[in-house]
Amino acid sequence: MTQSLEGEILKDASVKIARFKSIGLHYNLVANQIYAKRRGTDPFDESFLPYIIAGLISFDMTRKGIMGKQPYEFFAARLRSKLQCLRPLLKPLMNLALTQTNLQERSDNIIKSYNALAAKGEGALHAKGKHFPVGTTKILHFLNPRLFIIIDSNAARAFGLPFRNGQPEYSAELYIQCMEKAQEDIRGYGAMA
């Protein structure tokens, strides 16, 4: 990550938060329902899967054919399968909070899970079989919003991720670096209620 954006995330944080709350109401409405369901549910329980998918749809994963026009059940079956395979890796992370977690100690589980969810090719979560990095961070976030952050192109820019041909470069290792930076920023700014 570049050092040129050091401090950009916290710069005018209260203004940015207020602006997001005014234009991102639909995100917050859906996210609050996901978080409420998550508090009372095992995130690997079948009843939570529709909440993850609703979050992906509401958080713009249907744009540009990312989830495509494939039937809901087709996507749900792929996601269900991946989550069941990843359960042993993810389960130990489900009650952790970003500010209290040693990310280097947990990086192996995070990297393997990220790579499996973001994988391209046959069985990919992306409708066109492409890499699924943004959707992956959203899935991880919905599984444990206290630990995992969402990295989209705006967050990638704020964290100073490298861009190529106008698109951020995403990887599991860069995701860990962003989590470390977010951890630092939360400790510096304070967690929001």
Give the termini separation: 29 Å
Low-pLDDT sequence parts: 1-6
Q: Provide the gyration radius in Å.
A: 16 Å
* SS-based class: mainly alpha
Write down the secondary-structure element order. Answer: HHHHHHHEEH
Instruction: Say how many strands there are.
Output: 2
| The number of domains | 1
Biggest sheet layout: 2 strands, antiparallel
Measured as a percent range, the helix fraction is 55-70%
Number of DSSP helices? 8
Strand content: under 5%
Q: What does the overall shape look like?
A: globular
- How are the strands ordered across the major sheet? 1-2
The average pLDDT score comes to 86
Describe this structure in words.
β1 and β2 (167-168) form a beta hairpin. By secondary structure, the protein is mainly α. The longest helix has 19 residues, at 72-90. The protein has a two-stranded antiparallel ribbon with strand order 1-2. It has one domain (13-188). α3 crosses α6 (133-143), α4 (72-90) packs antiparallel against α5 (103-118) and α5 crosses α8 (172-189). 22% of the residues are buried. The two termini are 29 Å apart. The model is unreliable at 1-6 (pLDDT under 50). The protein has helices spanning 13-23, 25-39, 49-58, 72-90, 103-118, 133-143, 153-159, 172-189, and strands at residues 163-164, 167-168.
